[in-house]
Amino acid sequence: MFSLLNTPAVYTRFPFTSNHRPILLDLSFANTALLPFFSSWNPSLPPTGSDHAALTIILSTRLLQAPPKGLDWKYTDWNLISPLLADLTFAASPALPTPHSLDRWFDDCLAKITHLITSNTPTKHPSFYSKPWWTPELTQLRRIHHHTSRLMRKNQTSPTLASVARNTYFKGIQSAKRIHWSQFLANVDSRSVWDARKIAAGRAPDRFPTLENAASTTEINTTLLQHFFPPRPSPPPPLILPAFKDVPPVLPAEVSSTLRKSSNTSAPGPSGIPYSVWKQVHKANKRLLPSLFTPLLTHGYHPLAMKKANGIVLDKPSKPDYCTPASFRIIVLLETVSKILEKLSALRVASAARSLGLLHPNQCGSLAGLGCFDAVATLTHEVRLLQATSIKVSTLFLDVKGGFDNVCANKLATILTRGGVSAYLVAWIKSFLSKCQCRLIFQGAPKVFCPVAVGTPQGSLISPLLFVLYIASLHPTIPQGLAISYVDNLTITVGSDSLRSNIRSLQYYFSSIHRQGADLGVAFSVPKTEFIHWRTPKDGSDVSFTPIVINDMLFPPSQAVRWLGYWLTPTLHSSVHFLRQLALAKASFATIRQLSAAGKGLSSWCNRKLVFGAILPILTYGCDLFVPDRATLRKFNSFWHVVLRWTTTCFYTTALGAL
Residue 364: phi, psi to the nearest 5? Predict the structure, then answer.
């Protein structure tokens, strides 16, 4: 979509003959990505001898503006802060609070902590002009280059000397970059080795959302918010927050366990406070965070201060075009202090769900001890078990559309209440899912907090668990077959004497769960549906291409389906899966092998760490389920020998025995 930049009623062509009048002939356009940087359009340059006016288009780019200043948490003065935190106490929470009074109490308590931290933390001063490879010699060469250039323009020196000074300067820059990169690789340790890999892999530039009917960044922001967070009814907050009985207090050991499993590199929320800061706060005074969280759970309330989030707009890979909001996704970055409380609540909800039987036995993902392998192993075991009775087996792979965004807080609360979950957890979940605010982050975004109606926010630690509980009823009982799900990925497997009977059964079960999902406000992304007819390796019959019709869309049986990272074929042969993993491992190796060569670059120890962290997991993914055949093993061995030679910085002709 393009927008016209010309000023109305301003001519751009002035004919030399008097019998022709001036007209507007030269048009200037800008697409949505460039339009936010447009400043002015002016045809007032001096004449050029042509009958067309020369145009001036000014773009005010923000690319050279320094990034926003933030706090440098590495230099926080904890020696000064820790004694003050140890003596810090909070006022008692209100006895019969309203949402407003409890918000005010929480804000005051949180401000006491954050003020101590931020006032004793220096500010970063980032700049786009900082160059770690710059040297004093380059400063001198640049001065000589500029000096000789000025003299040449005044005809006070020869162009040859100016050219030599210019070439010497730019060659010095290239040499300084090479030397700095070599020194960086030579000093890489166990922590910075992954930074080296990230630099070698590079980073694709952020894609600017170019949306139809959105000509400015404000309109793009509004369009994205309306698409990802459509308006929906929200439960009204209670006037008085009652204190629930028998609420277990938050213990310091629970907070310590939660913080221990939290990564310091996890992206923080709007305040910018990372987990590392809360770890130091809890270390200085183990009473602060429990005394902050316990009243919230006691009254079943999540404060408004912890409902503000940054929404990072990311483009989905391999899309045909990026002119619709569906080509993007939003990752919500909540406050880290909110994530701590979410994790504590998630542990209590998960324990209650297991003990009360709220989860379907065939649900995997978001649950401790049940991962991708369990889901795929259950599916393949069921297929082989049905094939052992000499019946035909077919499977339909479904994907829940929207996933977390379609969870209704009222319906989820009803499901949990009927299941026997504690009233304080149900009240806290309803409060957590209501009155959220989000500001979208993309190039040129207005960065204004807007109220949004979300299901369960992506990026929240408790959202996957709540979604699994929400769709637990979408698992039909199949006499000859099984329904398995991994979070929002659902499979329906049926068996009968013929493939046509399987198709009719799959259509029936899909219609059934489609109606149940409609009652919950959950729909399926039909275009992402895949379908497969399973066969035994010794099956000599003709391959069936009988399709299935779902919502008036025709789906032929696939010859390879990727589900949860595993490539599944009709005969469950392992070669397709491992050959694709080998291709991914080779691509990863091509990225990191430039970090080291014979006699220079990374040390062998760092090479080994990269290989075991970035190549071996890719290469061996699926070995817990499949066994590679001999031909695949030979290809694996050939590739692994190349990796070993690179790891030990040996020459390509080094004998394998020496490795």
Answer: -130, 165
Closest CA to 434 of 413, 465, 415: 413
Task: Say how far apart CA 327 and CA 312 lie, in whole Å.
Answer: 14
Cα–Cα distances (Å) from 253 to 38, 159, 283, in that order, read 56, 74, 11
List the one residue out of 213, 208, 162 whose CA is nearest residue 63.
Answer: 208
Q: What would the pLDDT profile of 30-51 be if each residue is shown by its tens digit?
A: 876 677 677 788 887 777 778 8
**Residue 126 in contact with residue 66, Cβ under 8 Å?**
yes
Residue 447: per-residue pLDDT: 87
Residues 25 and 527: their CA atoms lie apart, in Å, by 46
- CB 241 within 8 Å of CB 106: no
**Burial class of 28 by CB neighbour count within 10 A (0 to 12, 13 to 18, 19+):** middle
Q: How many whole angstroms separate alpha carbon 130 and alpha carbon 116? A: 31
How far apart (Å, rounded) are the C-alpha atoms in residues 439 and 451? 9
Q: Could you give phi then psi for residue 567, rounded to 5 degrees?
A: -95, 120
Helix (H, G, I), strand (E, B) or coil at 340: helix
Question: Do 278 and 289 contact (CB within 8 A), yes or no?
Answer: yes
CB 396 within 8 A of CB 502: no
- How is residue 237 written in tokens? 């907050």
CA dist 483 and 492 (Å) reads 5
Nearest to 429, CA basis, from 497, 354, 350 = 350
Sign of CA pseudo-dihedral 225, 229, 235, 237: negative
Query: How far apart (Å, rounded) are the C-alpha atoms in residues 509 and 433?
Result: 31
In this prediction, residue 218 has a pLDDT band, given cuts at 50, 70 and 90, of: confident
